C-alpha cells in the first residue's frame, strides 16, 4: 500500500520530465526550422560572377550596350526605379564587362548610391543588392564603391532591416576580398568593431549575421590585419569573452585572434581573457581535425595559447586545469602532423618558460611522438 | 625535428628536453605563417539575385510613402524623430539628431563652450568636438567619410522636415518658451495673450510697440524700479 503513492509520484515525475524534454525538443526544432527557412530565403539566391548564365538559361542577356543605356537613363532622371536596379543587378551578375561598362559611365554610380541612402526602404534594399552585385567587379570598381558608399555600408550595419544589413555585409565581404586599399579605407571607419559586435551576437539571435560578420573579419585578418586601427584592436580585445566555442562561426575566432596579434600586442588582457581563450582552446581540441573548420580551430588555437604562455601570465591559475591541458596536448601530439607538432613544441617551451606548472611533472606526462 | 616525426615511438624525457632546449621562448607571429593558406576556408565572391516578382508585389501592396514596416519581417526599420519626423538609419544618428537639434540643455551647454559636445558620427569613436565643422573635418580626414555625408546633422534640414508639431491646444500659453530662452535676443517674439479656451484674449497689452515687445526695455524698467 505504501508503495503505491511513491510509484505514482515517480510516474508523474517521469511524465513531467519527458513532457518538458519534449517541449524543449519541439521548441528547438521550431527554432532550427525558422532559421533554415530564413537562410533559404536569403542565401539560396546567391551567385558568383557569370554563374547565373549557367543556372538560368531563359534569362535575358544584357550586353554592354544595354548597361550603357540604363546608366544614361538613370543619370538623366537622377533616379533609378526598382526595375532599373533589378536589370542592372542582373547585368552585373552576367559578367565583369557589364560592371566595367557601368563603372565607366560618370555619375551613374552616384544615382545608385542616392537610392541606397534615400528614405524609401524598399529602394534602399534594392540599391544595396545592386551594389552587392556591382562589388563583384575588379579592384577599381570596389575602390569606387568604397569611396562613395563605404561610410553608408558601415553605417547601415547598425540598421534594423535584416535584408539591408545582410546585403551590406555581403558587399563588404566582396570588397574586402578584392582590394586591400578599400579594406584599409573601410577599417578607418572602424568597421572591425562593428563587425565584432555582429560576430558576437548571442546565439538566440536568429538573423544569422554571425556567419557573415565572421567571414568579413576572417578576410580582414587575412588581407588587412596591418591596417586595423588600435581602437578596434582594443575593442576586440576587451570583448574577446563574448564569443563561445559552440556558437555560429566560432571556427574563425582563434584565427582572428592570432592574425590580429591580440595576445602579443594588447597588454591590457587580463587573467579572465586568458582563461576564456584557454577554455575555448580546450573545447576546440574536441573538434574533428580532418575538417577545414576543425583544422582552423586547432592550428590557430595552439598558436594563440602558445603566445599566451609567451607573455608569462602572472595570474593564470593553470594548476586546476593541468590534467585537462596535458590531455589536450597529448591528443594533439598524437595527430603527428608536422606543422602542428612544431607549434605544439613552441607551446610546450613557452609553458615551461612561464613556470605555471610543475615542469618536472609536466615533462613526465607529455607524450611526444618521435 | 621534422625528419623524426613519423615514427610511432614516444620520445623519452631527456630526448624531449633536448629538443626543447634548442627552442627559445617566444611568440608565433602571423608573418611567419602567412603563407600557410592551405587550411584557410576558401572565399568566393558572390552576388545576390533579386526576384522581380517580389519587387512588383511589394510595389503594388505598399503605398510609396508607407515606409515604416517591412512586409517580410514586420520590424520597424527606421529611427524617426518624433518632433521633426526626420528618419535616420541608426539609433546613434537619431540620438545625435535629437540631442543636437531639439535638446535645449545641449544648446545651452554648447553656448557655454566649456567642453566639446559634438560626438563623432561613428558610434565606436569616442571623440567629441566643439563645433559641427570640426566633427565634419574629423570624419572626412580620419574616417574617410564623403564631404557630402547624407546624415550630417550640421546640414540645414529640408523645410518640410523642420515643421515642428504645432501645439493645437488653446490652453497653452503662446510663445512662452521663446520668451524665457531668448531674453537677450533682439528678435523676441511678441507675447500676444494668454488664452484659456475662451475666444476673448486676455493680455497685458496687445499693442506691439510697447510693454512686453521690448524685453530689454522691460528688464531695464524693472531694474530702475529696484
TrEMBL record, chain A:
Listed InterPro entries: ARM-like, ARM-type_fold
Superkingdom of this protein's organism: Eukaryota
Descriptive protein name: Uncharacterized protein
Source species of the chain: Drosophila navojoa
From TrEMBL, chain B:
Ranges of residues in domain C2H2-type: 81-102, 120-143
Ranges that cross the membrane: none
Superkingdom, natural source: Eukaryota
SMART domains membership: ZnF_C2H2
Protein name according to UniProt: C2H2-type domain-containing protein
Source organism of this protein record: Drosophila navojoa
Amino acid at each position: 500500500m505504501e508503495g503505491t503513492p511513491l510509484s505514482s509520484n515517480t510516474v508523474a515525475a517521469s511524465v513531467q520530465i519527458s513532457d518538458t524534454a519534449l517541449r524543449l525538443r519541439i521548441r528547438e526544432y521550431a527554432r532550427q526550422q525558422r532559421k533554415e527557412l530564413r537562410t533559404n530565403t536569403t542565401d539560396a539566391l546567391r551567385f558568383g560572377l557569370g554563374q547565373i548564365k549557367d543556372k538560368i538559361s531563359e534569362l535575358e542577356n544584357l550586353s554592354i550596350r544595354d548597361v550603357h543605356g540604363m546608366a544614361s537613363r538613370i543619370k538623366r532622371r537622377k533616379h533609378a526605379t526598382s526595375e532599373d536596379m533589378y536589370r542592372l543587378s542582373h547585368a552585373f551578375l552576367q559578367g565583369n564587362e557589364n560592371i566595367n561598362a557601368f563603372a565607366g559611365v560618370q555619375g551613374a554610380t552616384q544615382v545608385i548610391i542616392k537610392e541606397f541612402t534615400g528614405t524609401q526602404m524598399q529602394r534602399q534594399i534594392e540599391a544595396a543588392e545592386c551594389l552587392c552585385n556591382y562589388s563583384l567587379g575588379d579592384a577599381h570598381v570596389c575602390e569606387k564603391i568604397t569611396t562613395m558608399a563605404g561610410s553608408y555600408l558601415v553605417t547601415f550595419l547598425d540598421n534594423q532591416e535584416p535584408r539591408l544589413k545582410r546585403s551590406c555585409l555581403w558587399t563588404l565581404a566582396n570588397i574586402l576580398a578584392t582590394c586591400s586599399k578599400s579594406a584599409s579605407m573601410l577599417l578607418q571607419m572602424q568597421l572591425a568593431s562593428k563587425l565584432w559586435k555582429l560576430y558576437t551576437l548571442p546565439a538566440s539571435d536568429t538573423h544569422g549575421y554571425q556567419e557573415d560578420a565572421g567571414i568579413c573579419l576572417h578576410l580582414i585578418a587575412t588581407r588587412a590585419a596591418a591596417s586595423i586601427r588600435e581602437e578596434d584592436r582594443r575593442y576586440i580585445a576587451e570583448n574577446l569573452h563574448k564569443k563561445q566555442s559552440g556558437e555560429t562561426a566560432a571556427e574563425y575566432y582563434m584565427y582572428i585572434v592570432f592574425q590580429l596579434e591580440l595576445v602579443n600586442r594588447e597588454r591590457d588582457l587580463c587573467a579572465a581573457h586568458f582563461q576564456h581563450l584557454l577554455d575555448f582552446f580546450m573545447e576546440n581540441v574536441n573538434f574533428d581535425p580532418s575538417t577545414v573548420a576543425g583544422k582552423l580551430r586547432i592550428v590557430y588555437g595552439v598558436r594563440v595559447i602558445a603566445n599566451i604562455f609567451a607573455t608569462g601570465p602572472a595570474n593564470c591559475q593553470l594548476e586546476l586545469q593541468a590534467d585537462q591541458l596535458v590531455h589536450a596536448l597529448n591528443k594533439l601530439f598524437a595527430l603527428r602532423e608536422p606543422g602542428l607538432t612544431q607549434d605544439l613544441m613552441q607551446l610546450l617551451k613557452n609553458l615551461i618558460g612561464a613556470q605555471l606548472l610543475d615542469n618536472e611533472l609536466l615533462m613526465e606526462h607529455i607524450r611526444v611522438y618521435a | 625535428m621534422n625528419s623524426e616525426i613519423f615514427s610511432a615511438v614516444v620520445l623519452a624525457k631527456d630526448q624531449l628536453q633536448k629538443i626543447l632546449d634548442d627552442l627559445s621562448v617566444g611568440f608565433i607571429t602571423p608573418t611567419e605563417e602567412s603563407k600557410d593558406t592551405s587550411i584557410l576556408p576558401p572565399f568566393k565572391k558572390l552576388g545576390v539575385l533579386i526576384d522581380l516578382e517580389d519587387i512588383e508585389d511589394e510595389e503594388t501592396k505598399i503605398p510609396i510613402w508607407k515606409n515604416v514596416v517591412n512586409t517580410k519581417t514586420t520590424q520597424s526599420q527606421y529611427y524617426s524623430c518624433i518632433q521633426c519626423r526626420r528618419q535616420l538609419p541608426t539609433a546613434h544618428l537619431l540620438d545625435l539628431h535629437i540631442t543636437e537639434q531639439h535638446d535645449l540643455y545641449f544648446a545651452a551647454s554648447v553656448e557655454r563652450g566649456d567642453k566639446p559636445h559634438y560626438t563623432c558620427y561613428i558610434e565606436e569613436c569616442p571623440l567629441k568636438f566643439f563645433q559641427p565643422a570640426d566633427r565634419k573635418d574629423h570624419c572626412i580626414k580620419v574616417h574617410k567619410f564623403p564631404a557630402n555625408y547624407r546624415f550630417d546633422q550640421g546640414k540645414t534640414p529640408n523645410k518640410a522636415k523642420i515643421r515642428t508639431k504645432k501645439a493645437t491646444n488653446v490652453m497653452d500659453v503662446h510663445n512662452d518658451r521663446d520668451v524665457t530662452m531668448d531674453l537677450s535676443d533682439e528678435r523676441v517674439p511678441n507675447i500676444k495673450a494668454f488664452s484659456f479656451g475662451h475666444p476673448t484674449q486676455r493680455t497685458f497689452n496687445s499693442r506691439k510697440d510697447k510693454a512686453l515687445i521690448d524685453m530689454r526695455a522691460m528688464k531695464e524698467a524693472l531694474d530702475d524700479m529696484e
